[in-house]
Amino acid sequence: MNRRELDPDSSPQAAFGARLRSSREARGWTQETLAEQMGYSSTHISAVETGRKLSTLPFSTSADKALGTGDTFERAWRTMRHAGLLEGFPQFVEQEAQAAEIRLYEVGVMPGLLQTPEYAAALAQSAVKRGAITGEQAEERVALVAERQAALVRTPPPLIFAVLDESCLRRPIGEPAVMGAQLERLQEFADLPHTHLQVAPFAMGARRPFNLPVYILTMPDRSLMSYAESAQRGHLERESSFVLPMLTAYHQLQAEAPSQADSVAMIDDLRRGTP
After folding, report:
1. pTM score, two decimals?
2. Which residues in 177-189 are b (16+ Cβ under 10 Å) and which e?
3. Which domains does the chain have, with CATH numbers?
């Protein structure tokens, strides 16, 4: 019987498969036995063990239940799922899904909460071509964008304040149709009753208080958190003495930027091809 050996250190996916196999064999179970216990086919078990198929959250929790491993495989799945993300970002996403108010400032690209699936896919595929992430990680990034947006469709929804640097609008991502649909998405976002959209034009110059993307969360208990990224990692800040000055700067940014009506008019001009 052929047996494909995996190097657990080669990738989180390989580590997951190797751990599943070793846990199964420690019980003296065949793939057929584990498949019966989990409610999956033996072919599916084999594909996950050999790294040919990605695990899912239901699969991982089912494996933990069948093998009596607590939350070992669920935690391994979360590690694997976040392998292509910056340090600190998964923790931020968990908090974002619970926030009562979200304030964001983005530079260069549309923020994930406002991206269309096609725009998100174009960004992810660009990272694949550069060799920064794998194809599987690109799929996870696109799926995460959808999950983040879906998590905000709740009652009551969070208040979302978005200020976009003009570069977000003028940097072409994907085909022209992708950018056209993305600009239309921004206008739809601005029409929602719980959102506010502004564009910080290049003409603001030094009056912009931020040079890098910034996210500020107000939680249901009114506590504050902020998230910012460098090229290598992200940082979730929970200490209010550090977050409050950022909130003040954000309010200054909103005061300096054009109104939502003027910002939407700028977006409409770009959609129509007006310089």
Report:
1. 0.72
2. ebbebbbebbeeb
3. 12-81 (1.10.260.40), 90-111+152-271 (3.30.870.10)
